[in-house]
Hints:
Layout: H1 8-20, H2 24-32, H3 42-54, H4 58-71, H5 76-88, H6 94-107, H7 113-125
Amino acid sequence: MNAILPPDSFCISSAEGWIILGNPIEAIGELEQVSNPVKLRPEYLELKWRVYADTQEWDAALELSEGMVRDLPDHPGGFILRSYALRRSSKGSVEQATTSLLEAAVKFPSEPIIPYNLACYACQSG
Length: 126
């Protein structure tokens, strides 16, 4: 995938900085300035998901990650973020997050965060 070029790369970098500083509102302001083609890229979508997570908007995070799974089926990030949002959204549960992540485990067997998250869900389920 090609690198994100300025000025979009500056907006992405600034959004990351605002997230690190704990200011998701400023981060979303930076993300709104990104050009439409970049808004389809995983880097952008994962940052936007992070804003939703930081503001506890789990239903919006779930909707975004479900779109990532649909539109970027070869990118493990959408699957991982979907299970994380499922765990916390009003529509989800630990069991649904586990089921969702098991699908990702089959598709991405070398992605180390997947078995880790599955172990966490197993502990939460007893």
